Amino acid sequence: MTDAGRHVAIIGAGAVGVISAIEALRFGHRVTLIDPGEPGGEQAASYGNAGWLSSHSVIPPAEPGTWKKVPGYLMDPLGPLAIRWSYLPKALPWLIRYLLSSRTEAQVETTARALRDLLKDAPQLHRQLADEAGVPELIERRGVMHVFPSRTPFDGDLGWRIRKRVGIEWLELNEDEMRQREPDLDPRYKFGVVVEEAGRCRDPGSYVAALAAHAVASGAKRVAARATGLRLQDGRLAAVVTESGEIACDAAVVAAGARSKQLSASIGDPLPLETERGYHVMIENPESGPRNSMMASDAKMVVNWTDKGLRAAGTVEIAGLDAAPNWKRAEILRDNLFSMFPKLPKNIPASRIKTWFGHRPSMPDGRPCIGYARATRDVVYAFGHGHIGLVGSARTGRLVAQLLSGKTPEIVLAPFAPSRFL
């Protein structure tokens, strides 16, 4: 079998999967997209994404000293990062790796440099894809703002110092300049930075649906089924195993988000993938709010206008795939949103306030797995993007197509190699 013109089964029709499909088609492959759900539907992590195309999101979730905060995470079920006691024994190996991966500043910078290569130019890449899919209006490149109660937390933030070292630039705003840009923002915020290279997606669910439709129009086939494993024969991939039967193929891409762990394990790669459970709240027709996308340093949440309403997203909960949602976490996002923007009407009907819960697929070191399976180069892994799934999907899809086609990847993939955990 030559590298060109293979039958590629792509497991997962989220942002990474559908863009991988589009890019694989460019190389002349036949593509089958396998996913039990509708692309861009509410069941998908892509749907609930905050909508930021933050090419500067290069800092891993853990930083030096994070281990000191673990007792607080366990004691506060409503904090920015919460760990359910009942899930702690299962999560402990992942948590240990999570803490050890960023215990020094040098480790954080290594990850930041790798992620910078992955995310650089992401808003432009997404705009090109949106143009192709006929939805250019869904991608905007207007920059994003970070707001702080004072300059002190910004100056003391290791993440911003490392961003500067890896070449990210920003514009600093004093209180008056912030107020001119964001008159509805609570006056407790005194300092801000604008990262002008970043962008936003006005409707992540609709964007992924449009990309999937573009892939199908370009020749991809969609199969509504849940993949449960991969079957090898004589060192080559023979089929993707689904609940509805086997799908014979020459190559496969595992891009099933938080459900990728079972698939990689089925061919001998027990990778440490965990789900960071995320929430969002969205107010339809809110009448007030930010003019630009922003992140509040004190609330640890992103606020972004979407075509469906004003969305606030953030916080992390470690509790596995099967535990019931804790909707109080969404209520905290709502309360923080009202606190940030005091002009929001306090009597907004509950019918106009929507909540969502989903699963971020996360590796403990904050870097996704992008590369070949150990057992065969017929299988490419592309999962574990954590908080950068949407923004990182554009270049990831290109890398997947290059790996499938035997081409040299456009960036160095050693920092993302699945073998770093094996």
TrEMBL record:
Name of a matching Pfam family: DAO
Protein keywords: Oxidoreductase
Xref: SUPFAM superfamilies: FAD-linked reductases, C-terminal domain, FAD/NAD(P)-binding domain
Domain spans labelled FAD dependent oxidoreductase: 7-403
Stretch forming the signal peptide: none
Top-rank taxon, per record: Bacteria
Name of the protein described by the UniProt record: FAD-dependent oxidoreductase
